[in-house]
UniProtKB/TrEMBL annotation, chain A:
InterPro entries: BP-dep_ABC_trans_perm, MetI-like, MetI-like_sf. This is ABC-type sorbitol//mannitol transporter SmoKGFEm, subunit G. It is found in: Cell membrane. It comes from Solemya velum gill symbiont. It is a multi-pass membrane protein.
UniProtKB/TrEMBL annotation, chain B:
One of its GO terms (molecular function) is ABC-type maltose transporter activity. This is ABC-type sorbitol//mannitol transporter SmoKGFEm, subunit K. It comes from the Bacteria. The keyword Nucleotide-binding applies.
UniProtKB/TrEMBL annotation, chain C:
InterPro entries: ABC_transporter_permease, MetI-like, MetI-like_sf. The chain crosses the membrane at residues 12-37, 64-94, 106-123, 155-178, 199-228, 264-284. It holds the Pfam family BPD_transp_1. PROSITE patterns: ABC_TM1. This is ABC-type sorbitol//mannitol transporter SmoKGFEm, subunit F. It is a multi-pass membrane protein. CDD domains: TM_PBP2. Residues 69-280 form the ABC transmembrane type-1 domain. Keywords: Cell membrane, Membrane, Transmembrane, Transmembrane helix, Transport.
Length: 276, 333, 290
């Protein structure tokens, strides 16, 4: 093949790929653009792509009308809180399974995963009633608890696969060097597993941030995170495209950025290690 | 300080007994090498001494005190692992300091000891690097440094040289031997390489399938192997064996002759054969000879031997250099 | 391989995770099972009574159940077909030499990170709305009558939205697998005279087949539980036209307050999901041994 043949092929591929990429990305781009329009421009016919009066008023109005940042903060608390709590529990469990495997370890691991496959509607009613009776309904504590539990299997699983890659000899060396179990986990295992722990954290924050079954069903107003808050725009009186777009842009921006950073780890985490 | 006694120690993994009842005495200050083919249980034995595995039964005493159920950290032993097991996220200094930090020493004391160890091991120039930036030999020295700062009762080495290239291995062998001369601390060293065993050990323990085949000084094992297995394992190249008629002549089931004890002649000798490959190394010549009965012999001869592929050769050995074994593979006489 | 000391420590350290998950699974699930045999309505508390399999009988013979079952199947199958074929095609495309591959990759992956309520609302209002949506504008520009997606093709619309969200997942995983394909294998096939199509059929596709199965199983687990997209777009309607099992159970229990009937539906959903889960667990389990 000559150089020009390779180049023209590359040009065509680039054009097709960019075309499809932009097409797939377009709804997000359109949302971001609309968030800078006035409500009138947002529903103008024909639609305006770039030649509109750019404005930031939607962003301030969303906050003024609905205490947006309260919901944003709820999302942060729920996703970060459930992730940290989950990590704390999962690091211990994953250490046990990776470094002191017993006969039943594999089964425990599989069983933990199987809980993730339990459809949420199967336990919706009892959880709803239990939360109602214990006052956990519409509280951040309740949501942190539930999200910790639904994502715990994924955290354990991901950490397990990362820990498996750390040679056991290093932990034994620490033991010979006089490290207690805690010292071994804190001074040796955790720092060595930082990349794995970080990507597990990232993926879990993404999953928790976007979780939209429990957050919708267990919150009313006070503890509602962004998933539930945005859902309130589904009512007809909420048909303000520009404001919806501004709220949406802020809701997805942090996760988009985190997601782009964690693409690689995402594959391993989302397929439970079946694809690396 | 530094004697280790194993009494009726056994180890099973599930239903598999990897070490049947075993007794061994390691004296203070000795350099003891556990040697044997892979899977012979030598590493398991070392890990039992270290406390990284529990014994299934029996007892281990360190300095005459029962240590069977004491945690590894409290046994006062230091271990150098095959993979070095350095902490990749810590600098050389922090790696070496780690056991001292765990022991709760003052920072000033730690620094002093780490610097001293780094000096001994020529690591001072690399002290702030991470293990990933070091060569294999340097990593090995860091691992040793981490072991010596603790001033342990004994050092345990688990095949420490197997990840190094040949030249470096010879160097490190010497360094470890020198270290032993200087520190005079008990060392227990596991290897599958009988050359390491012969060159470094005060006492060699030959293991096969968890059973001690023989214990003795290198030369004892070389001169008076207790059985055919030890005879074949110790010495390089390996001992040649003959059985059947040729052995019966010597009143044995099997006889063995070391390659270096064979003389060759073009005219006459005890065994007739044909040279297959002749390796002329200059100092020595290795001849791979196929005897008339089909068995293969290795001959180590001086550098001037002029024998080549296809030549007929007669091999013979002095009677005192012919090892005799009975049908149970035990040495006779 | 370890000592008793570390084994005891390990048991101790794994127990919080095990106990929590055990609690999470056993307690509510057995409550659901129990409720499913009760006549239990939140509007008439204290009137619960044991009615055996009545709830199941009612739930399983309800026309809404068959509609929901069909919709669930269509939703899962539709999304799977679109995302798998699209994912394979996109993965092959993104694996080609091009300029700005990293950026294209980011553009393609982005929809996966959009929360379900946002993507559903954005599509519903800004694209599929028959008055102000972009599709309506496009139709008008071409002289056609705007199509009211959620009135006339509610399930199809939801399938499109969900497929848009999951296409990146399939693409990302299949691309990862494709890039792990030994390029020498392809070169050897080229040397052996295999043409493009046969290289794809005989080398690339078999290499991806395991990953495709994993993607299908994982997506199925998630797609069976699609909820938010339906809640914010159609509320399951019109009628039951876009109600899936998950939404039906939700509506039964939290909108009609029929805990007993909802619970029976929940158990049915668990059984359905388990059938898929068993296959998925087998695949993952095999991987664990390797």
């Amino acid at each position: 093949m000559s150089h020009t043949a390779i180049d023209s092929r590359k040009i065509i591929m680039t054009a097709i790929a960019w075309g499809i990429g932009l097409l797939i990305f377009f709804p997000i781009l359109w949302t971001i653009l609309t968030s800078f329009k006035t409500e009138a421009d947002a529903i103008a016919s024909p639609p305006m792509f770039l030649g509109f009066d750019w404005t930031l008023e939607n962003y301030t109005e969303v906050q003024d009308r609905s205490n947006y940042f309260q919901h944003f903060w709820n999302s942060v608390v729920i996703s970060v809180g459930s992730t940290l709590l989950g990590l704390l529990i999962a690091i211990l469990a994953a250490w046990s399974m990776a470094f002191v495997p017993a006969k039943g370890t594999k089964n425990v691991l599989m069983w933990m995963l199987s809980t993730k496959m339990l459809p949420p509607v199967g336990v919706l009613i009892p959880i709803y009633l239990l939360f109602r009776d214990t006052g956990l309904l519409d509280t951040l504590t309740g949501l942190v608890l539930v999200l910790t539990l639904i994502n715990l299997p994924i955290i354990v699983w991901m950490l397990y696969t990362y820990f498996k890659e750390i040679p056991g000899e290093i932990l034994e060396a620490a033991r010979m060097d006089g490290a207690s179990l805690w010292a071994e986990i804190i001074h040796v295992l955790t720092p060595m597993a930082v990349p794995g722990i970080a990507s597990t954290m990232l993926l879990n924050i993404i999953l928790a941030w976007n979780e939209a079954f429990w957050t919708l069903n267990l919150t009313a107003a006070k503890a509602a995170p962004l998933t539930a808050f945005i859902a309130s725009y589904s009512s007809p009186e909420g048909l303000f495209y520009a404001k919806l777009s501004a709220a949406s842009t802020m809701a997805i921006a942090p996760i988009l950025i985190m997601g782009w950073f964690s693409q690689k780890q995402l594959v391993r985490g989302l397929t439970f290690g079946a694809v690396k | 300080m530094g004697s280790i006694t194993l009494e009726n120690v056994t180890k099973s993994f599930g239903d598999v007994e990897v070490i049947p009842p075993l007794n061994l005495e390691i004296n203070e200050g000795e350099f003891v090498v556990f040697v044997g083919p892979s899977g012979c249980g030598k590493s398991t034995l070392l890990r039992l001494i270290a406390g990284l595995e529990d014994v299934s039964s029996g007892s281990i005493a360190i300095d005459r005190e029962d240590a069977t159920s004491i945690r590894p950290a409290r046994r006062g032993l230091a271990m150098v692992f095959q993979s070095y097991a350095l902490y990749p996220h810590m600098s050389v200094r922090k790696n070496i300091a780690f056991p001292l930090k765990m022991a709760g020493l003052e920072q000033a004391d730690i620094d002093k000891k780490v610097d001293a160890a780094a000096n001994i091991l020529n690591l001072s120039d690399y002290i702030d690097r991470k293990p990933g930036q070091l060569s294999g030999g340097q990593r090995q020295r860091v691992a040793i440094g981490r072991a010596i700062v603790r001033e342990p009762k004994a050092f345990l080495f688990d095949e420490p040289l197997s990840n190094l290239d040949a030249a470096l291995r010879v160097n490190m062998r010497l360094e470890i031997s020198e270290l032993h001369q200087d520190l005079k601390t008990t060392m227990v060293y596991v290897t599958h390489d009988q050359v390491e065993a012969m060159t470094m050990a005060d006492k060699i323990v030959v293991l096969r399938a968890g059973v001690i085949e023989q214990v003795g000084s290198p030369l004892e094992l070389y001169r008076k192997p207790a059985n055919k297995f030890v005879a074949g394992f110790i010495g390089s190249p390996n001992m040649n064996f003959l059985s059947g008629e040729a052995a019966q002549k010597h009143g044995a089931h099997t006889i063995g002759v070391r390659p270096e004890h064979l003389a060759c002649s073009r005219e006459s000798g005890m065994w007739k054969g044909t040279v297959g490959v002749a390796e002329h190394l200059g100092s020595d010549t290795f001849l791979y000879v196929t005897l008339n009965d089909g068995s293969n012999f290795t001959v180590r001869s001086d550098g001037n031997v002029d024998l080549n592929h296809g030549d007929t050769v007669y091999l013979s050995a002095e009677p005192e250099n012919i090892y005799r074994f009975d049908e149970n593979e035990q040495a006779i006489g | 391989m370890a000592t008793d000391h570390s084994r005891i420590a390990a048991r101790f350290m794994i127990s919080p995770a095990v106990l929590l998950l055990l609690g999470w699974m056993i307690v509510p699930l057995s409550m659901t099972l129990y409720f499913s045999f009760l006549d239990y309505n939140l509007l008439s508390p204290g009137m619960e009574e044991w009615i055996g399999f009545m709830n199941y009988e009612y739930f399983l013979t309800d026309p809404a159940f068959f509609a929901a079952l069909g919709n669930t199947f269509l939703l899962v199958a539709g999304v799977l077909v679109i995302t798998i074929t699209g994912g394979v095609a996109l993965a092959l495309l993104l694996d080609q030499p091009m300029w700005g591959q990293g950026i294209v990759r980011i553009l393609v992956i982005a929809p996966f990170f959009v929360m379900p309520t946002v993507s559903a609302l954005v599509w519903k209002n800004m694209f599929m709305n028959p008055v102000n949506g972009l599709f309506a504008h496009a139709a008008k520009a071409m002289g056609l009558a705007p199509f009211d997606f959620f009135a006339h093709a509610p399930l199809f619309s939801i399938i499109m939205i969900v497929a848009w969200q999951w296409l990146p997942f399939a693409t990302l995983i299949l691309l990862t697998v494709l890039q792990s394909l030994d390029k020498e294998q392809l070169e050897a096939a080229k040397m052996d005279g295999a043409r493009k199509m046969s290289r794809f059929v005989h080398i690339i596709l078999p290499h991806m087949s395991r990953a495709i199965t994993v993607v299908i199983l994982i997506q199925t687990i998630f797609l069976l539980s699609i909820f938010a997209e339906i809640l914010v777009t159609t509320n399951g309607g019109p009628g039951y036209a876009s109600t899936n099992i998950t939404y039906l159970v939700y509506a039964q229990s939290l909108l009609q307050f029929d805990v007993g009937g909802g619970s029976a539906g929940g158990i049915v959903a668990v059984v359905l999901a388990n059938i898929v889960a068993i296959f998925l667990m087998r695949m993952i389990g095999k991987n664990l041994e390797a």
